[in-house]
Specification:
heterodimer; A: alpha/beta; Rossmann fold; six-stranded mixed sheet; 31% helix; B: 221 residues; mainly alpha; MetI-like fold
């Protein structure tokens, strides 16, 4: 469980997040939605502990361990992230991209883990290519596989549907469900309200750097926030 | 005496001169690379005024002609310090100075252009800093810097002819001396040009090969 207390994040004079206090479960499928520039990706980076809040604290309680922002919290790879542009390492093949974190973590069963994710994410046809030789959808699958192969408890995912056509989005959703079925907690930042409505156990709505609404997907039937009201009002 | 006779007769002198040239370039390249790397590393630790100062010196070294640096080190600097350093070591110092700040700029540029998200991604996937440096940063930085580094060696090779002006017995000075004896400038300077073509051409070919081998088009297809 993440506990955020009065969390703010500024970039110079720009305030990306403002005084957020909320709790975000780590063992569920959580969707973070909101308009562009509302602070969703910033929240994800803070939750991944690669960035620190300007003020306030973020506490992560995970399997008996507690991590607090501001210290040298390194919950990786128990908590890992897939960022918006996947950031597959371009000098390595996709196979090497997946194997490197396993080897770096001293895993002994690299071959079997690799085989498992290659089958799970249907990557046999392109696993030996480089990242610039595959489509956006395939790259997202590899990035998810690279995170999942480490057996994390939680994966934070930023805009997985970005740049994908509807068919690729549907395929991607099926893989996200596979992750969920495998027991991995997911926090997914998305523009796709349909996706959030259909799959998320919990929805967090951000507007202008503030959490304005949170709850189950019933939020979509009785929206309170301006953002959701506007979207739901569109026929 | 035809062209081949001239070249054959003075082959040992040419070889000795060319060896001195290569010695200058290789030593300056290696020392400059090491010190340039070290300088960039130190700047990355301290940044701020240290980086600004080194950037200023690097700019000055690249803006001042190599010949001026060489002469300055050979005459005023030695006079001011009251020391006498051999022409070879003076030329080596000048070329090393140029190589050092060129390597510093090459590495600094490659580091500045390095996408930090590759590092962030590696962090959240559990790699430690040493692993990130070894498996992510170094391979990508070297790929970015290697062709420019080989280009630098070619520039050093061309610049090394200035060493003849302070009496270093490198290939240009040897050619001048031979020419002063037999006065066959076309043959002698053509032979020297061929030597440079072979050496610089090899370097340029190597740079081209390295670009083709390691430089990947990272854009999506």
């Amino acid at each position: 469980m993440y506990t955020l207390e009065h969390v703010s994040r500024n970039y110079g004079k720009v305030s990306a997040l403002r005084d957020i206090t909320c709790a975000i479960p780590t063992d569920r499928f959580v969707s973070v939605v909101g308009p562009s520039g509302s602070g969703k990706s910033t929240l994800l980076r803070l939750l991944s502990f690669v960035e620190l809040p300007t003020s306030g604290t973020i506490r992560l309680d995970l399997e008996g361990l507690s991590y607090t922002s501001g210290g040298k919290a390194r919950p990786w790879p128990a908590v890992t992230a897939v960022f918006q542009r996947q950031f597959l390492w371009p000098h390595l093949t996709l196979r090497q991209n997946i194997c490197l974190p396993l080897a770096a973590g001293g895993m002994s069963d690299i071959t079997s883990r690799l085989q498992h994710v290659v089958e799970l994410f249907d990557m046999e046809d392109f696993i030996d290519r480089y990242s610039n030789e595959v489509s956006g959808g395939q790259a997202t699958r590899v990035a998810l596989a690279r995170a999942f192969v480490l057996e994390p408890r939680l994966i934070l995912i930023d805009e997985p549907h970005g740049g994908l056509d509807p068919e690729q989005q549907a395929i991607l959703n099926s893989y996200l469900l596979k992750l969920r079925k495998a027991g991995v907690g997911l926090v997914v930042v998305t523009h796709s309200l349909d996706f959030a409505k259909k799959y998320a156990d919990r929805v967090v709505v951000i507007e202008d750097g503030e959490v304005v609404e949170e709850g189950s997907s019933t939020l979509f039937t009785q929206p309170r926030s301006r953002f959701l009201k506007n979207i739901v009002a569109i026929p | 005496m035809n062209a081949s006779d001239v070249l054959w007769q003075y082959r040992e002198a040419f070889a000795r001169g060319f060896f001195v040239t290569l010695e200058l370039v290789v030593l300056a390249g290696l020392i400059g690379t090491f010190v340039g790397f070290l300088l960039e590393w130190l700047c990355s630790l301290f940044e701020g005024p240290v980086r600004a100062g080194v950037d200023g010196v690097a700019f000055a070294v690249s803006a001042i002609p190599a010949l001026v640096i060489l002469f300055w080190l050979y005459y005023p600097a030695q006079s001011l310090l009251g020391v006498s350093v051999s022409p070879f070591l003076t030329a080596l110092a000048a070329l090393t100075l140029i190589a050092t700040f060129s390597v510093y700029r090459i590495i600094a540029d490659a580091r500045r252009d390095f996408p930090q998200q590759y590092v962030t991604t590696a962090l959240v996937l559990g790699l430690n800093k040493a692993q990130i440096l070894r498996y992510i940063q170094m391979p990508l930085l070297i790929r970015a810097a290697l062709p420019r580094w080989v280009d630098l060696l070619v520039v050093l090779l061309q610049t090394s002819v200035f060493a003849s002006l302070i009496s270093v017995e490198e290939v240009f000075r040897v050619s001048q001396r031979i020419n002063s004896v037999i006065y066959r400038p076309v043959i002698i300077y053509s032979a020297m040009a061929v030597l440079f073509l072979v050496a610089a051409g090899s370097g340029m070919y190597l740079a081209k090969y390295l670009r083709a081998r390691f430089h990947r088009d990272f854009s999506e297809r």
